[in-house]
Specification:
With about 180 residues, this protein is an alpha+beta fold. It is built from six helices and seven strands.
Length: about 180
């Protein structure tokens, strides 16, 4: 098992620790709320302590809004601190049919592999190096899969978005706009 301090050290080295800490409630959502809720509510993003969660209908939005305080308390308990100030449920076309595109079928090019190797070369712990390498490969394959499925980059921040809404910028955009 990787020591949390090693992971924190790597995230800090690459300037990602604060962003990770901010998004951590979204990463814990499925585990904290359970399988039944997570099938109907997908975390989108966390911004300034507000967790945005996508739901498929206004009925589900209303039901989960009645439970938001319980969800917030459970998340904060799992985080060990009062980091989630509010949960906002947002109706989105959901669940979306998923493509049968397999990440195993996606190949990374030599330049992508070199970039990953450069990032992990300074990690002295072999276990940590292996985990970070696997995570980076999966992230790159997911990015390529999303591009193949027609996801478009946000003109403002570059994040690949499934629709014309960027959860990072919290703004709608039109294809080709800046």
């Amino acid at each position: 098992m990787i020591e949390p301090t090693l992971l924190e050290k790597v995230l800090r080295k690459y300037g990602l620790f604060e962003k990770y800490r901010e998004q951590e409630p979204a990463l814990l959502w499925d585990r904290v709320v359970g399988e039944r809720v997570s099938r109907l509510a997908r975390p989108i993003w966390v911004q300034e302590g507000v967790l945005f969660v996508a739901v498929p209908s206004h009925v589900v939005q209303h039901e989960f809004s009645l439970m938001r305080e319980e969800f917030r308390k459970r998340l904060n308990n799992a985080l060990g601190a009062e980091r989630v100030k509010e949960i906002r449920f947002r109706v989105e076309s959901f669940p979306k049919p998923r493509s049968a595109l397999s990440l195993d079928a996606i190949e990374l090019g030599p330049e992508e592999e070199r970039t990953i190797e450069q990032v992990v070369q300074d990690l002295s712990d072999p276990g940590l190096r292996s985990v970070v390498t696997q995570l980076m490969r999966k992230a790159k394959k997911m990015e390529k899969a999303r591009q193949q499925l027609g996801w478009k980059p946000c003109p403002r921040c570059g994040l690949l978005c499934e629709e014309h809404f960027c959860p990072l910028c919290a703004q709608s955009f039109e294809e080709g706009s800046v």
